[in-house]
Amino acid sequence: MSKGFPLIHIIYEIVRERGSIDDLELFEVLSSKLQGVSLSEIEKALLKLEVMGKIVTSSKGKKGGLLIELAEDRKYIMPDEE
Predict the structure, then answer these.
(1) Helices (H) then strands (E): counts for the chain
(2) At CA 14, angle to CA 8 and CA 15, rounded to 5?
(3) Using the 8-state DSSP alphabet, how is residue 35 labeled?
(4) Is the pTM here over 0.85, yes or no?
(5) So what's the pLDDT on residue 76?
(6) How far is CA 33 from CA 1, 9, 26, 38, in A?
(7) Which tens digits make up the pLDDT trace of 16-67?
(8) Is the pLDDT of residue 12 over 50?
(9) Which domains does the chain have, with CATH numbers?
(10) What distance in Å separates the CA atoms of residue 24 and residue 66, rounded to the nearest whole number?
(11) Strand 20-22 vs strand 55-59: parallel, antiparallel, or unpaired?
C-alpha cells in the first residue's frame, strides 16, 4: 500500500458515508481504491479505530464476518430501560 492518506482515515470515511458495512465489502471497496492493501492492514486499522472509539464491530452470526458501524450511530439500551 502507498504511504499516502492513512488507511484509518479512508476506512472511517467509507463507514461514515455508508452507515455500516461488512468486512468483505470493505475489503472489496478498499482493494478497488488502493493497490496492494492487505487484509491484515485492514484488520489493524479497524482495531485502531475501535480502540479510538470511532467504530464498533460485531459478529454477523454463524456465517462469520464482521459488521462495521460508526460508534456514534450505535444505540445502547441500559438494562433498566428494557
Answers:
(1) 3, 3
(2) 90
(3) T
(4) no
(5) 60
(6) 10, 13, 11, 12
(7) 999 999 999 999 999 999 988 999 999 999 999 999 999 999 988 777 888 9
(8) yes
(9) 7-71 (1.10.10.10)
(10) 8
(11) unpaired
SS3 66: strand
Q: Cell numbers 479512508 correspond to what residue?
A: 10
How many angstroms separate the Cα of 24 from the Cα of each of 3, 60, 65, 78, 80?
A: 23, 12, 8, 31, 36
CB 1 within 8 A of CB 41: yes
User: Exposed, middle or buried: residue 66 (CB in 10 Å: 0-12, 13-18, 19+)?
Assistant: middle
β-pairing verdict for 66-70 and 20-22 = antiparallel
Q: How far apart are CA 72 and CA 11, in angstroms?
A: 15
Which backbone phi and psi does 24 adopt, to 5 degrees?
-70, -40
